[in-house]
Amino acid sequence: MSSDNLIQQAADILRTSKNIAVLTGAGVSKESGVPTFRDAMDGLWARFDPQQLATPLAFLQDPKLVWDWYEYRREMVAKAKPNPGHLALAELERRAPSLTIITQNVDDLHEQAGSKNVIHLHGNIARSKCFYNCQGDPTVVDVSKIEYDKAQGPPPCPHCGRWLRPDVVWFGEMLPVDQLDVAKVASISADVMLVIGTSGLVTPAATMPELAKSQGAKIIEVNPDDSMITRIADIKLDGASGEILPRVLEAMGKNA
Ligand code: OAD
What we know:
The chain is an alpha/beta fold. The protein has 2 domains: 1-32 and 83-122 and 174-256, Rossmann fold, CATH 3.40.50.1220; 35-79 and 128-168, SIR2/SIRT2 'Small Domain' (2-Layer Sandwich), CATH 3.30.1600. It has 10 helices and 9 strands. The strands form 2 sheets. It has a 6-stranded parallel sheet with strand order 3-2-1-7-8-9, sandwiched between helices. Helix 1 (4-15) crosses helix 10 (241-254), helix 6 (84-95) runs parallel beside helix 10 (241-254) and helix 8 (177-189) runs parallel beside helix 9. The radius of gyration is 19 Å and the shape is elongated. The protein starts with a helix and ends with a helix. 40% of the residues are buried. The model has no long low-confidence stretch (mean pLDDT 94). The chain binds 2'-O-acetyl adenosine-5-diphosphoribose.
């Protein structure tokens, strides 16, 4: 657990910063009950490797398997509620309106917590789109309006009749260009970047802290373990984001 001294240092940097960027990963949603990508899966899914399921090739080889796995993940995300870490970030944005959250998460827990300025680099698990984006990229479709036989696999695209898929970024796919551009601008303009709950293994998201640092931003990391980002962090706060972030907010308040 991080010392009060480090927490206070982080709070002082945040309080005196004009532009705050926040990069979040799966760790920030863990205390909401959403397992990270690299956590072992249980039950039916224990024998599958998520990295093998989250690819266009896996989908083409077995659309039903990949669709069912995303249905399982969707159910977990649908049940999840924002945790104190999400709520603290929303409060930080109220205090510092120029704050931008760049998230790799496909849930909407930041928005549910009240954050407004959120960039999703890896898509949105609640949405579906045509696998072929037959009406343009992305061809988003409301699955709740489609009747289909779940035993047969994913629902058909109402435009072209081919498969629908989750609107998330899979391994080997490009990130949405507009979101990536905004994320880069937020990183370059930041005086400080908070890096929370990410292993820093997946690029280009993982390059944002380096980008921010190259332009003079301070890097504050919140993670119970070390990550690929830790070596460039100016301050490393060891612990769960749901515990650390409320403490940082409280420390900001003290000397405000
Ligand atoms: P990872 O699963 O790689 O890493 C989660 C990080 O969260 C680890 O560094 C943990 O130590 C940390 N962590 C665990 N519990 C935490 C807590 N309570 N508070 C704070 N941190 C905690 O997740 P990501 O880095 O988000 O991509 O993974 C990046 C991308 O890889 C994902 O978006 C996904 C995946 O493949 C795609 O689907 C394209």
